[in-house]
From TrEMBL:
Domain (FAD dependent oxidoreductase): residue spans on this chain: 3-309
Name by which UniProt lists this protein: D-amino-acid oxidase
Pfam family, one: DAO
BP GO annotations: D-amino acid catabolic process
The protein's enzyme class: oxidoreductase
């Protein structure tokens, strides 16, 4: 193994290419959109395994990624920072399996939690996606990876034109169409509205808000407010009524947001699957590794799954 073609330049494709190149492979990325113009560009993002089945593999990948981001946060140019925040839950038995990867967390004083909810206060990586994806692309190029703008219509086409030793399919929602052996991929629509930041640093996510998924992620120059989690919806246009409802919910949760002007808005389609797929695909003429279906946790799993792909490919020969 030596020459690897990665299909996809979102956070997953870039992270995989980074780790393969760092391991000594010659890597080329084929992608028809830059990360900023894909789902990856729409995330806020915080480290949190949201909209993904929390299997042992996912929790392991989350932990590896947490540690990697913690190191990256030492360099402000990466756009990664460690930030305190709150995870609210309104279920009687909340799933706290994710806290295994988090060194600092504590149950919140019930007096500080909205009626009926429980809360965990913790410190996690906050990844400012516009800064981070630019940093990651630059890091990938510095490792000698070639990034080519191209639409891939079939893996046979890649095999014929690129003659790689292996292919990694990291094409998000469109991965299943390229592989043709998977009918378990579907979009989870996420709408966001970005407000001016009145000086907030702490994030909050209210997973089971009766009005809908609600989160507030303050960044350097804005606050990403969400959201929605509409499984099966391919609608990529912001809906004004949905935005008004998001604004009502986030202002109820974080009163400082009242009166802050809207800076921008957007919709992203999370590439969801019954479970994240990271494996060698059987029945192919050459080694093909699938790495997709990360739902609402692509950043959260990125470095862990990139390491897993690198192990599956093996060392360069
Ligand atoms: C509103 C919202 C908020 C989110 N918040 C978070 C968060 O806080 N934390 C978190 O961890 N995650 C979050 N996510 C989820 C995260 O954004 C996704 O899991 C992640 O972006 C998926 O990355 P990806 O690289 O698999 O796919 P994408 O970013 O969609 O990239 C796919 C790439 O494949 C390329 N491609 C596809 N098909 C082809 C083809 N046939 N030929 C050539 N190129 C192709 C595209 O051009 C693109 O480069 C959020 C998502 C949304 C929508």
């Amino acid at each position: 193994m030596g020459r690897v073609t990665v299909v996809g330049a979102g956070v997953i494709g870039l992270s995989v290419a980074h780790e393969l190149a760092a391991a000594g492979h010659t890597v080329r990325i084929l992608a028809d959109r830059e990360a900023a113009a894909s789902t990856s560009g729409m995330a806020a993002a915080i480290w949190f395994p949201h909209d993904v089945k929390r299997s042992a593999q996912v929790l392991d990948a989350s932990a590896v990624t947490y540690q990697r981001f913690q190191r990256l946060a030492e360099d402000p140019d990466t756009g990664v920072a460690m930030r305190a925040g709150t995870v609210l839950s309104r279920r009687p038995d909340p799933d706290l399996s994710w806290t295994r990867a988090v060194p600092h967390y504590e149950p919140l004083d019930p007096a500080r939690v909205p009626g009926g909810a429980t809360g965990v206060r913790c410190v996690v990586p906050l990844i400012q996606t516009d800064v981070y994806l630019t940093w990651l692309r630059t890091a990938v190029l510095a490792l000698g990876v070639e990034i080519r703008t191209a639409e891939v219509r079939s893996l046979a086409e890649v095999q014929g034109s690129e003659k790689p030793d292996a292919i990694v399919v990291a094409a998000g929602l469109r991965s299943a169409a390229l592989l043709g052996d998977d009918d378990e991929v579907y979009p989870i629509r996420g709408q966001v509205v970005r407000l001016a930041n009145p000086g907030l640093t702490d994030w909050i996510t209210d997973q089971d808000n009766p009005g809908g998924l609600t989160y507030v992620v303050p960044r350097r120059h804005d606050v990403v407010c969400g959201g929605t989690g509409e499984a099966g919806s391919w609608d990529d246009q912001p809906d004004p009524e949905t935005e008004a409802a998001i604004l009502r919910r986030v202002r109820a949760l974080v009163p400082e947001l009242a009166g802050q002007p809207v800076l921008s808005r957007g919709v992203g389609l999370r590439p969801a699957r019954s479970s994240v797929r990271v494996e060698a695909v059987p029945g192919q003429a050459l080694p093909v590794i699938a790495c997709y279906g990360h739902g609402g946790a692509g950043f959260t799993l990125s470095w862990g799954d990139a390491a897993r792909v690198t192990t599956l490919i093996g060392p360069p020969t």
